Structures are given as structure tokens and as C-alpha cells.
TrEMBL record, chain A:
Transmembrane feature ranges: 36-57, 91-118, 130-150, 180-207, 290-311
Biased composition (Polar residues): 1-10
Record key words, sorted: Membrane, Transmembrane, Transmembrane helix, Transport
Source organism of the structure: Actinocatenispora rupis
Matches recorded under InterPro entries: MetI-like, MetI-like_sf, Sugar_ABC_transporter
Name under which the protein is recorded: Sugar ABC transporter permease
PROSITE patterns on file: ABC_TM1 (PS50928)
Sections of the chain in a coiled coil: none
Entry's localization field: Cell membrane; Membrane
Annotated family: Belongs to the binding-protein-dependent transport system permease family.
UniProtKB/TrEMBL annotation, chain B:
Keyword Transmembrane: yes
Membrane topology: Multi-pass membrane protein
One biological process term in Gene Ontology: transmembrane transport
Compartments, as annotated in UniProt: Cell membrane
Protein name: Sugar ABC transporter permease
Cellular component terms (Gene Ontology): plasma membrane
Gene3D superfamilies: MetI-like (1.10.3720.10)
Length: 320, 277
């Protein structure tokens, strides 16, 4: 992926020069190319605008209103009152904290395990296809299906994991710490292979000769990993982290099945969802939606600014 | 690297076995639950003591799982198809043509890929109820198309860049219009990439839970993952464990088949697109 970012600067020639040329009168060919470009993008753009941009705008409008479906008569404009309500609410901040804990812990484990798995998939001399096929199973399996597997595994009497003498017959899914651990475990199991695949793409760009040269200079395997492989993989690692963090922040399916937010495990997504479906409070629900969107946007922004991940929209982001 | 020593073989076998256990144990556990006889659910054994297919029979005959399964298949297939068609157009334009707004298009799709779906649930719930899309197939197909489009556009445009474009030029020299060149030369060459992308998009639609559970209220549009969450067992007083496990296995089978057949393609698609969506 390092190459990708560099290449994009040089390889884009046909597209990159567009700005400079724009002033000159366009040839017929250029004009028809533009037209075709817009025409081909139009359907996708329309769908994306109608299904996301419009609801986002609508969501912002709703968030400025008092709008509870149980009391539709009391609907009215309230300014930022909903934001004040949510942001001073203890449940919101607890959900925020829970979400951050799940995100940080699971992504940290996934990075280490994913790197190990990526190494195995990249280097194994035995049954490469076999290992890769196996690793894809957790990625492909429906999260809800896997989550039920974990739930039953941890249910006393029913589950093989709950039987282990370690927990001495308690019900792990009824306590906060153990529930959180199980939710994080389910997340890690499901998404480590995805992380590993992204990292494997990064491993593929590390030239074999560099490794050999380092080995000849007497570098140990660990030194080669930390001094040669890791620095070269930095862009791939950052892209993988960015995707996984943004994905983990919206954690929903696993929590819904495992605890449905009980025992203090309610994430931002679960809280927002409950507010809508059980609470039918559109004003507050929309406020939460907007706040969640802002949270994700801030995380993405920080990632790009602080770590210098290839900016979204840059031609070859995360590609080789 | 040419000669693989026995010791290397042994250590890699260990590593491979660990990966296999990691990936398979949770799946085998669900399979085991789904095959257990009703009286043995609470024995906690990893391997069933009493084997039966009754749970699978029950979910279709009593549990009404047929309809959600058909919904899932229909909705995922249609959404994937539409996303692939319009995504291919956009990806072609992005990979091949020079036009202002290209960056905006890529930026917007990346934004959507990272968008917290639950943020859309509240407004979509309200909008779909007012225009009559709530609890219908199109009501789910639309958000699925949108959320698979970024993946489609990114993965496909990276595949399309790899195509030998001289062939297109040759076709144009022979008098083909840009559209003819696209349809008759590029589309056949792009097919492998399209298939890969379609599989990834299908997996994503198949996997969705947030929209499925928020934008449906009955089995007329509820997809399989959402339906599982509403399983209560064959009768109200029955433990749904077996039904849930059997249904989970049923919706896992297509994915396992895909993975077995298209492993190479899925890996290349994921690593080249780097977008999960």
C-alpha cells in the first residue's frame, strides 16, 4: 500500500491533469468523456444521496424538534434542547464509555492476533489455500448467528464454555465485566480474519530481498519484524485500524444478541436503537444519530490528521 | 525456501491447526447445538449425545422460517445485482475517464462506508413509514444498495485498473463508440472482478441486522437474521435453542459454500478493495 500512495501521484496522469486543462476549451472527445463520466456515476450518486444524505439532513432537522411518537401533538421546534438533554444524560455517556472500551480493547487484540494470522497466511508453506479458506469463515458468517453460538456457549448448563471450572457455575452473561469480555471476545473472533487479510495485503508489499539482507546483516527474526516489516507496513496497518475502529464504534449485532444492553453493556448503537424502537422518541433518537455520526467523523478526521492515513477520496487509498 | 524441512512442516502444521481450531470451534458448536435432541440441550456437551434433524424440520414446518429465508435471498440478490450494475458504471468512470467530481464521488462513497448505520435508522424509519416502504422488500433493498455501493465502487475500480486497456483503444479504432467499447470489450474482461465484488456485496447484505430489525415489523419483509432474533420456539413455552441454532446453521451454509468455492477471489477482492463497508 505504500506503493499505492506513491503510484497514485504518478499514475493518475490522465485524471490528475484535469484541473490544469480545465481552462482551455474542451475538445469534443474530452467533453463527451466528461459527459459519459457523469452519466455513469449518476445512478450511484443518486442512490447514495437519496438514501443517506437526505436522511442525514432530515435527521438534523428532527434533532431540533420535540417529536415523540407517543405524543405527536406536542411536536415543535426546540432548538438545541435535545442536544442538551442527551449530552447531560448519564446513560449517553455511559454508552459512550462502553463503546470506547469495546473499540479500544477489541481493536488492540485484533491488531496483534490479526498480524499473527496474517503472518501465518502469508508465510505458511503448507496448505496456504486451506488456511485462507478457514480464516474467511468467521469473516463470512452472519454476526447474529455467531453471536447466538457465543450466547449459548456461555449459558450455564447449556454451554461448553460455561461448564469450565474457572467460573465455578456462575452465569457470565449476567455480570458487567464478564458480559463485556464475552462481547469483546465475539467481536475479536469475528473480525480478526478481516484485519488479517488487510494486513496480509500490506505484508505482500514488503520486499523479500530486504528481509534477506537484514538476515545476512545478522538481524534476528524479531528485529527483522520490528525494524523492516512493521515500518514498511505502516500504511496498511493504519488503513486496517481505521476501518476496524470505525466498524467497532458501531458495534450492535453482538450486543443485541448477547445482552441486549443489559448489565451496563449498552453501546451507542444499542442506546440509539432502543430510544427509537422502544421509546419511539424521534427527536431524541435523531439527536443521538447525529451525535454518533459526529463521533465517527471526528475519529476518522483524527486518524487522517494525526496518523496521516491516506486521505479518503485520494485516488488509490488502501489499494495496490 | 525451495526445500521444506520436516521441522518446518511440523511447525506449520501446528500453526495451521491452531487457525483451524480458532475458525471452526464456534461454528461446530452451533452445528452441534442444532443437531442435539431437545432433551439434551442443557447437558453442555460439545458433541451431541442424541442426534436429530428435528430442529431443522421444525424451523421450516412450525417456525415459519421459509418466508424470512426467501426474503433474505430475494433482498440480498436484488440489492447485490442493482449495486453491481450501477457500481460498475461508476467504477468504470472512476478507473478510466477524466471528469471533474471524481474525487467527490470517491470521498462520498468512503464516507458512506464508514457511516454508522444506526444513525440512518431513525430517519429512515420515519421516512419509510410515511411513504409506505416500511416493512417491504424495497424498504430494505434501498439501504442495502447504498451500503454495498462503496465496496462495489472501490473494489471494482481497482480491478478495472488492471485490465489491458489497449484492447479498448483497438476497439475504438475499429470504430466502436466509448459505450460499445465498454460493453463489448471491457465487460467480459471485467467479469472475474465483478463476480468477486458481487460475492462480497452479497455477504454484506446477507449479514445485515441493524436495518433488518429496524425497518421491518412482520415476516413479510423480515430477513433471516432478524427472524432468528424473534424465534420463541415451536410453542410459546418451548426453549428456542434448537431452532435458533438450526436457523443459524442454515444461513451460514451459503457463506461457507461461497468461501469454499471462491476463497482466492474473496481474498483478492478484500485485499484490493480494502473496504468492508
Amino acid at each position: 500500500m505504500t506503493q499505492a500512495t506513491v503510484q497514485s501521484k504518478t499514475r493518475v496522469a490522465p485524471g490528475g491533469a484535469g484541473v490544469a486543462k480545465a481552462k482551455k476549451p474542451l475538445s469534443d472527445g474530452k467533453r463527451s468523456e466528461r459527459k459519459l463520466g457523469w452519466l455513469l456515476c449518476l445512478p450511484a450518486a443518486v442512490v447514495m444521496v437519496v438514501v443517506t444524505i437526505y436522511p442525514i439532513v432530515y435527521s438534523v432537522m428532527l434533532s431540533l424538534q420535540r417529536y415523540d411518537l407517543r405524543f405527536p401533538d406536542k411536536r415543535g421546534f426546540v432548538g438545541f434542547a435535545n442536544y442538551a438533554t442527551v449530552l447531560t444524560n448519564e446513560f449517553w455517556w455511559r454508552a459512550f464509555l462502553i463503546t470506547m472500551i469495546i473499540t479500544v480493547v477489541s481493536v488492540a487484540f485484533e491488531l496483534v492476533l490479526g498480524m499473527t494470522l496474517a503472518m501465518v497466511m502469508h508465510r505458511t508453506v503448507l496448505g496456504k489455500g486451506f488456511v485462507r479458506t478457514l480464516a474467511l469463515i468467521p469473516y463470512g458468517i452472519v454476526t447474529v448467528a455467531a453471536a447466538y453460538g457465543w450466547q449459548y456457549a456461555w449459558t450455564p448448563n447449556t454451554g461448553y464454555l460455561a461448564q469450565l471450572p474457572l467460573w465455578s457455575g456462575s452465569a457470565p452473561l449476567t455480570h458487567q465485566a464478564s458480559s463485556m469480555a464475552i462481547i469483546i471476545l465475539a467481536e475479536i473472533w469475528k473480525t480478526t480474519p478481516f484485519m488479517a487479510l488487510l494486513l496480509m495485503a500490506g505484508l505482500a508489499v514488503v520486499p523479500e530481498e530486504l528481509q534477506k539482507a537484514a538476515a545476512m546483516d545478522g538481524a534476528s527474526a524479531w528485529q527483522r519484524f520490528t525494524k523492516v516489516t512493521l515500518p514498511l507496513m505502516k500504511p496498511a496497518i493504519l488503513v486496517a485500524l481505521l476501518f476496524r475502529v470505525l466498524d467497532a464504534v458501531r458495534v450492535y449485532d453482538n450486543i443485541y444478541v448477547l445482552t441486549n444492553g443489559a448489565n451496563g453493556t449498552s453501546s451507542l448503537s444499542i442506546t440509539t436503537y432502543h430510544n427509537l424502537i422502544s421509546g419511539l422518541n424521534l427527536g431524541i433518537g435523531s439527536t443521538m444519530s447525529v451525535l454518533m455520526f459526529i463521533t465517527v467523523a471526528v475519529i476518522a478526521f483524527l486518524f487522517i490528521k494525526v496518523f496521516g492515513t491516506a486521505a479518503p477520496g485520494s485516488e488509490n487509498m488502501g489499494r495496490r | 525456501m525451495a526445500v521444506v524441512t520436516t521441522r518446518q512442516k511440523a511447525s506449520w502444521s501446528v500453526a495451521n491447526t491452531i487457525v483451524a481450531l480458532y475458525a471452526l470451534i464456534p461454528v461446530l458448536w452451533i452445528l452441534s447445538l442444532s443437531l442435539k435432541e431437545k432433551s439434551t440441550f442443557t447437558d453442555g456437551h460439545f458433541i451431541p449425545r442424541g442426534w436429530t434433524f428435528q430442529n431443522f424440520v421444525d424451523i421450516f414446518q412450525v417456525g415459519g422460517f421459509t418466508r424470512p429465508l426467501l426474503n433474505s435471498i430475494g433482498i440480498a440478490v436484488i440489492a447485490t445485482f442493482v449495486a453491481i450494475v450501477i457500481g460498475t458504471f461508476a467504477a468504470y468512470a472512476i478507473a478510466r475517464l477524466d471528469f471533474p467530481g471524481k474525487k467527490l464521488m470517491l470521498g462520498a462513497s468512503l464516507l458512506i462506508a464508514m457511516f454508522p448505520q444506526v444513525s440512518l435508522v431513525t430517519p429512515m424509519f420515519q421516512v419509510e413509514r410515511s411513504i409506505g416502504l416500511f416493512n417491504t422488500w424495497p424498504g430494505l433493498i434501498l439501504p442495502y444498495i447504498t451500503f454495498t455501493l462503496p465496496l462495489t465502487i472501490y473494489t471494482l475500480s481497482s480491478f478495472l485498473r488492471e485490465i489491458p486497456w489497449e484492447l479498448e483503444k483497438a476497439a475504438k479504432m475499429d470504430g466502436a463508440t466509448p459505450f460499445q467499447a465498454f460493453r463489448q470489450v471491457i465487460v467480459p474482461l471485467a467479469m472475474p472482478g465483478v463476480v468477486t465484488t458481487a460475492i462480497l456485496a452479497f455477504i454484506q447484505c446477507w449479514n445485515d441486522f441493524v436495518f433488518a430489525i429496524s425497518l421491518t415489523s412482520t415476516n413479510s419483509a423480515r430477513t433471516a437474521p432478524a427472524a432468528i432474533a424473534f424465534f420463541t420456539g415451536a410453542s410459546q413455552f418451548e426453549d428456542p435453542t434448537g431452532s435458533i441454532a438450526a436457523a443459524a446453521i442454515v444461513i451460514t451454509i451459503p457463506i461457507i459454500i461461497f468461501v469454499l468455492i471462491f476463497q482466492r477471489r474473496i481474498v483478492s477482492g478484500l485485499t484490493s478493495g480494502a473496504v468492508k463497508g
